[in-house]
Amino acid sequence: MRIYFIRHGEAESSYENDFTRNLTTAGRIKLHKTFAAFAKFFSKLEDYKIYSSPLNRAKQTAEILSEYLKKDFGIKEYLATGPLNQILDDFEPNSNYILVGHEPLISNWIRELTNENVIVSRGSIHLVELDLEKRKGRLLKITI
Q: Which residues form a coiled coil (predicted)?
């Protein structure tokens, strides 16, 4: 099983309501470039599901990704709250996943699964190959 962890793109800096922060124009432009390249690479993987955090900036990131992959996405509350076991319990063994979420959750999940520390910048994509039964994986490099 493969899990692609994607951090949302650059968002507004206003912290009045973290839930409703939107992507900036620059953030959207960068995501379009990244996801256009990713879609060419990713088209080889057949069975996958896309899930996003319910926060605006993550949903907007997933919307852009969905345009390029031509696939709908779902919303998972746990992608905004962080319990890795809940995420893994929700997975089907023969599927692959793209999860759009936030920091520091993504770097924490990757560390829990792979024992590797990673820097997760806005709009970045990290791939973990996971043995779901053992709940352990290895971090694979993506070059886009």
A: none
- pTM surpassing 0.85? yes
Reading the block at residue 6, the tokens are 């994607």
Q: Could you please report the per-residue DSSP string of 10-42?
A: -B----S-GGGPPBPHHHHHHHHHHHHHHHHHH
∠ Cα 144 9 28 (to 5°): 90
d(CA 82, CA 108): 9
Cα dihedral sign for 119, 95, 101, 86?
A: negative
The counts of H helices and E strands in the chain are: 5, 6
Handedness of CA 37, 40, 41, 43 (dihedral sign): positive
Asked whether the CA dihedral 76, 27, 95, 104 is positive or negative, the reply is negative
Categorize the per-residue pLDDT at 142 as very low, low, confident or very high, splitting at 50, 70 and 90. Answer: confident
Q: What's the confidence (pLDDT) of residue 43?
A: 67
